Amino acid sequence: MAVEEHLEENEEELEEEYEPLILMFATERCAYPCADVAGLGKISYPPNVRLIRIRCCSMVPPDLVLEAFRKGVDGIIIGTCYPPDCAFKGGVERTRERMKKLGPKLREMGIEVDRLRVEAICSVCTNVFKQVTEEMTEILKLLGPTPYAEERMKQREQKGAE
Known about the structure:
The protein is of the alpha/beta class and 162 residues long. It is built from seven helices and four strands. The longest helix is centred in the last third of the chain and has 18 residues, at 126-143.
């Protein structure tokens, strides 16, 4: 088999393998340090997860979640503290309520509600961090890309062709 044929086969396999883009808003006291500990401990988690450190989960406005989906993000995880550990009274509960209210808007946009998760992740629970990110990746692979993500991928392909 020629090298070129082998490369072409590998490229086709890579194109077929859908890797969802996951945005994780991670609280600076819990979920973000956990990701750091996972990295330092060389615990592998999906490379398609992009972390954004936030002070408190309640500081993630619903409009930002909707905008992220419009920009082509396949899934969003809001990594919170456990409610008793939240430095901002009621922050976790408020966040859960606000994100639940997004359900109708997400469906209106053609986005399944399973693409948005609010998960409590303590600062040293690397097994929970790994599990949540792997589960979300698998769910998104089953769901496939959103219409917005498909548009993002097409734009990326066009830029690569130029």
